[in-house]
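Private note to self, pasted from the team thread so I don't lose it. Backbone tokens:
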């Protein structure tokens, strides 16, 4: 039996933009892995109601286990996670749960952010490591057909992926503890 955690975010806009496609991805995965269990920790009652509405519209017959909070427990118990970029990605890495990160925002906001922020990554593990530790899909890339194979790869490759993250986690911890003004060269280079 496999377990997939879906973490569509803590803000209403994130849940609205990602939940339907997260659920569609879980449906695709369940077609390949019929024993797949899906767990969805939601930050509060308002996000739960929002997710339940989206689930009723998108995947009414799909069984998912919704949790009030308990995101860390869901990450620890899951074999893989599909999540919105944010602090959850760092928590997921520290919980040693393989993940795929997605993020979608309104087109104008994304256009503006691309012009104001110059970075190669959006997820905290990748930003802190200065290289790709976890796969990120943004905007138009955020679709079930792209997420499904990446999530599928998490199961057979979980141990090697976790070794990579375990090697990087101490570097990230040291980097995060050092004030930006005192950082000269990254610990991981």
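Design output:
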């Amino acid at each position: 039996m496999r377990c997939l955690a879906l973490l569509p975010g803590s803000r209403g806009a994130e849940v609205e933009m990602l939940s339907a496609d997260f659920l569609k991805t879980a449906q695709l995965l369940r077609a390949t892995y019929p024993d797949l269990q899906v767990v969805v920790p939601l930050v509060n009652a308002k996000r739960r109601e929002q997710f339940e509405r989206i689930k009723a519209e998108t995947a009414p017959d799909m069984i998912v286990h919704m949790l009030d909070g308990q995101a860390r427990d869901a990450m620890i118990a899951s074999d893989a996670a599909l999540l919105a970029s944010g602090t959850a990605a760092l928590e997921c890495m520290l919980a040693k749960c393989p993940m795929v990160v997605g993020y979608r925002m309104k087109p104008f906001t994304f256009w503006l952010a691309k012009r104001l922020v110059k970075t190669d990554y959006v997820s905290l593990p990748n930003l802190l490591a200065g290289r790709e530790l976890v796969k990120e899909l943004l905007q138009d890339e955020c679709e079930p057909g792209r997420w499904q194979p990446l999530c599928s790869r998490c199961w057979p490759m979980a141990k090697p992926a976790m070794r990579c993250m375990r090697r990087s986690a101490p570097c990230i911890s040291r980097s995060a503890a050092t004030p930006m003004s005192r950082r000269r060269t990254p610990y991981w280079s």
